[in-house]
Amino acid sequence: MRIFVRLLLLLSLVLAMGCSSSPGASSKPVYNDFVAWQLFNERAVWYSSTSRKPILIYFYTDDCMPCEQMSRHHFTNQNIVLTINNYFTPVRLDSQNKKTRYLMSEFGIQQVPAVVILSHVDRSVLSKMTGVPAPVLFFNNLKISLQMDRVKAIQGVMIGE
Q: Whole domain around residue 44: which residue ranges?
């Protein structure tokens, strides 16, 4: 419970932070050649809960070569883009922002690029990746995170939450 409250407080710290904005993912699988990044605000958190999609937070900077590699090799890969756009609430945060740096420190992230995936059920951390993993490893991590989120949802139903 304490971790849940702490994560909610952390998420509220960045509610007004700007990120690249694109239309949200539709209910049908769609491949758009790019990840449909959303603003990280109350609406994204609400959408994650109501759509039952985990939140994928991508920490980056504009002048980071590994971040550029992620953009070129991961966020243009058809399987990765399709999975993120249709099964996650994707948001990205510029690590040069003071509030973003604070959030990164709370997640124990010291370098970019980094990706944190939060459960739609209780906002707990499902996955944390730093650096540039091979696209296939990144994709597999997305799939594992989705499975872990589904297990949390099933456990919540069984407990009666």
A: 2-159
Neighbouring residues of 21: CB distance < 8 A, sequence distance ≥ 6: 37, 38, 39
Q: Extract the tokens encoding 133.
A: 């993993």
- Per the CB < 8 A criterion, the answer to whether 111 and 130 are in contact is yes
Whether the link from the prior residue into 113 is cis, omega within 30° of 0, is yes
The enclosing domain of 136 has a CATH number of 3.40.30.10
Domain count, the chain: 1
Neighbours of 59 (CB within 10 A): 24
Nearest to 82 by CA among 36, 119, 113, 45: 36
- Please list the pLDDT of the chain residue by residue as tens digits (161 residues): 455 434 444 444 443 333 333 444 444 444 556 899 988 777 777 888 888 999 999 999 999 999 999 999 999 999 999 999 999 999 999 999 998 999 999 999 999 999 999 999 888 999 999 999 999 999 999 999 999 999 998 887 665 55
Q: What does the H/E/C string look like for 65-130?
A: HHHHHHHHHCCCCHHHHHHHHHHCEEEEEECCCHHHHHHHHHCCCCCCCEEEEECCCCCCEEEEEE
For the entire predicted model, the pTM comes to 0.78
